[in-house]
Amino acid sequence: MKANDMVLATPEALVGIATELKLHPYDLDLLEAAYTEAPLMDLMTNPEQFDLILAFAEVGSEDHDLRDMAGDINRLLWRIPEDQKMYIGSGVLNLRTFSVNPGVVIFPDPDALSEFIGVEQP
């Protein structure tokens, strides 16, 4: 797992994982660091508490009632500069149905995220 390479240098590393990814327990067992699963918006509210954040690269929905929400989430993710992200795959995470192999984005410097997403640091 690519995230392991990034956290092994810090034994006390804490990884924030977006619950929307619905990672399989087997995959979570491969992560060699402590982690917390929470909705992406919760992770983005306090990004400074994590050493890195794993999230989905893009969301979508065929349901009319979820399209606006998907667009809002994507616009938030797109505000973060490319040099603050590392991508694994490129599939779209569907908000209504289970997604197979959605694209994953790693934010290796969560402290820097608040300046791009409009979250106030305490």
What would a concise description of this structure say?
With 122 residues, this protein is α/β, with parallel strands linked by helices. The protein contains five helices and seven strands; from the N terminus they run αβαβαββαβββα.
Fill in the keyword field for this structure.
two-stranded parallel sheet; 31% helix; 5 helices; 5-stranded mixed beta sheet; globular; 122 residues; alpha/beta
Describe this structure in words.
This protein has 122 residues and is α/β, with parallel strands linked by helices. The chain has one domain (2-109). 31% of the residues lie in helices and 21% in strands. The chain is built from 5 helices and 7 strands, in the order H-E-H-E-H-E-E-H-E-E-E-H. It has helices at 2-7, 25-30, 40-45, 64-79, 114-117; strands spanning 14-18, 34-38, 52-56, 59-60, 86-88, 93-94, 104-107. The strands form 2 sheets. Strands 2-1-3-7-5 form a 5-stranded mixed beta sheet. The protein has a two-stranded parallel ribbon with strand order 4-6. Helix 2 links the parallel strand 1 (14-18) and strand 2. The longest helix has 16 residues, at 64-79. It is globular and about 45 Å long. The protein starts with a helix and ends in a 5-residue tail after the last helix.
